[in-house]
Design goal:
A hairpin with a 7-residue loop joins strand 7 (146-151) and strand 8. The relative contact order is 0.16. The protein has a single domain (17-273), classed as Spore Coat Polysaccharide Biosynthesis Protein SpsA, Chain A (Alpha-Beta Complex), CATH 3.90.550. The longest helix has 37 residues, at 237-273. Helix 4 (82-100) crosses helix 6 (177-186). The strands form 3 sheets. It has an 8-stranded mixed sheet with strand order 2-1-4-9-6-11-8-7. It has a two-stranded parallel sheet with strand order 3-10. By secondary structure, the chain is α/β, with parallel strands linked by helices. The chain has 9 helices and 12 strands.
Length: 274
């Protein structure tokens, strides 16, 4: 009987402890005229056990933001496209709205994702702030170094990992008021795409955490941002040295941050054993 009991406990981990009721709002960022994408999302989400709403995506720069094209060339190696500025502004607006919303946290999705709604309904009941988490990705696009920081998150087979480098993508994430405030303060000057900026934990200080395996997957469809951003761009001669220096400094800061976080995680493990 003891073996059976332990097996049942392994298959059904205890739910995350909560000391207060959390209010979670699920928003789906979508262009107002993207009817085909909206229709596909509605069809997939018709039996979702939690409420969600479309959130109007922006097509121009948010009035609270400023865009510096030369700084973007230095930071990213090219100017940003209009659709990238719109995407940046859409997420910035959502973080701004969260500050005055009755909700404690948002789950932000884009309209080209396939969602594990059962997991998301469980996530919506978790007060992330009480777990010391203010930003939690539900998907990322690019493989990078990871470290497991929490096992058995909500479900037995899920973990929370900390990402050590750029992972890209804003297809799905959960964010609290405090997490949104960090990004609002940090992202006022636009020099990179929004996902690049959110990845820079070594600058803004907000850990880049993600659920793995992903409860959200990107649908195989064309990006509304387009592929023109991947075309070759020749950095102007007068910016090439600045670009090189910035790139090297950014790498040094990122590597130093990874080393510090590695030591912190080691020390935390040692303390947990005592």
């Amino acid at each position: 009987m003891g073996i059976i009991k332990r097996a049942m406990e392994w298959m059904n981990p205890k739910p995350e402890l909560m000391t207060s009721v959390v209010r979670t709002k699920i928003i789906v960022v979508s262009l107002a005229d993207a009817e085909e994408r909206r229709s596909r999302f509605r069809e997939r989400a018709q039996n979702a056990p939690v409420a969600w709403d479309f959130y109007p995506a922006r097509t121009s720069l948010h009035p609270a933001l400023s865009y510096d094209e030369q700084a973007a060339i230095v930071a990213k190696g090219r100017p940003l496209r209009a659709a990238e500025l719109g995407c940046f502004s859409s997420h910035y607006a959502a973080w701004e709205d969260l500050q005055s919303d009755e909700a404690d946290q948002y789950v932000v999705l884009e309209d080209d994702v396939i969602v594990d709604w059962t997991f998301l309904s469980k996530l919506a009941e978790i007060a992330l702030t009480e777990m010391g988490i203010n930003y939690l990705r539900l998907y990322y696009k690019f493989p990078t170094t990871t470290a497991v920081v929490r096992e058995d998150f909500i479900e037995r087979a899920r973990s929370i990992v900390e990402l050590g480098g750029p992972a890209y993508g804003t297809q799905g994430y959960a964010i609290t008021k405090a997490g949104a405030k960090v990004f609002l303060d940090h992202c006022r000057t636009v020099t990179r795409p929004i996902d690049d900026e959110m990845d820079r934990a070594w600058v803004h200080g907000q850990p880049n955490l993600a659920v793995f395996p992903f409860p959200v997957m990107e649908e195989f469809s064309g990006s509304t941002i387009g592929n023109a951003r991947f075309e070759k761009f020749d950095v102007p001669q007068h910016l090439k040295l600045k670009r090189l220096v910035h790139y090297r400094v950014e790498r040094l800061r990122r590597d130093a941050s990874k080393a510090i976080r590695r030591f912190q995680r080691f020390w935390e493990r040692q303390l947990s054993k005592t």
